[in-house]
Amino acid sequence: MRAVVRRLCLFIGALFGMSLIIFAALRILPGDVASVMAGVNASPQRVAALREQLGLNRPAIEQYGAWLAGVLHGDFGSSILTGRSISAQIVLRSQVTFPLILMSLAIALLIGLPLGCAGALATRPRMRQFFRVLAIVGGSVPALWAGLLLILLFGKGVGLLGVLPSQGFPLDAWAHPLTALASLLLPALTVGIIVAASIMRYTRSALMEVVDSDRIEFAMACGMARRQAVLRTGLRLIAPQLVSVVGLTLAEMITGVMVVENLFALQGLGSMLITDVGNRDLLTVQSELFLLSAFFLFIGFVVDMVHQIIDPRLRIQGWEQGR
Length: 323
Description:
Blueprint: H1 2-28, H2 33-38, H3 44-54, H4 60-72, H5 86-121, H6 125-140, H7 143-154, H8 177-210, H9 214-221, H10 226-263, H11 269-278, H12 282-310, H13 312-322
Helix pairs in contact: 1-12, 5-6, 5-8, 5-10, 6-8, 7-8, 7-10, 8-10, 9-10, 10-11, 10-12, 11-12, 12-13
């Protein structure tokens, strides 16, 4: 329990430190925030009014305190360009981005894990070479090119088969789950296939390291076939490594999702961030970057907790340190 509390405190501390970095970065950069947001041709009166409206004329510590207090209450403020609540926009866009990430990860695991195991179990040199080349080629495919190829194959109206939507997301979001899932399937396949290549490569390499170990031989001596020993004992041995890889992959997928959301015209967090950067709505960008940073840190926290659950040695070590 103490280990969990300690890691939770580290997570909160890291989140606080990240908020400081994001807040300072947007103010240390050259140029005045109000001048950038007002535009090149804005009058000095317009810049001064905008600076007062945003509170930029107050000391930096007061600005940070006001922003952090709003974040703790779930209020990220309002967009200076649209006047809409940033929190409401984030909640709306999250209904696209996070389901897309989870679907992409599920597809990646369904493809990558079996192929990685098959690559480790392959005994013929040609089969091993085939799985090695497959992992390299799959990981080298750009997300933009893969998405365009899938649209040409499966996209309605333009694709060869024309069975899946290739643009947009339902306005009523998840009121009709099947329609929403169909809209996300092609983008999820685009990201999932590329990520599957990385998971396949890591799974294959990790299993190859333990396939000739004493534990696999002991499992075979207990009556297991080689295939059973590798799939049961081997996967259990490499589980902590796979959890770390999946956690890092999940955090990194947000960058791939940004490209895919724009390609498939999905109104998610990635497209929102790109649009706000282009529109120079820097205070909205500040809140979006903080949310993405919190997501990355949360994934790391979850991975650490899962390690504690699946690896008894870490639980014992944490218990000894907490005494």
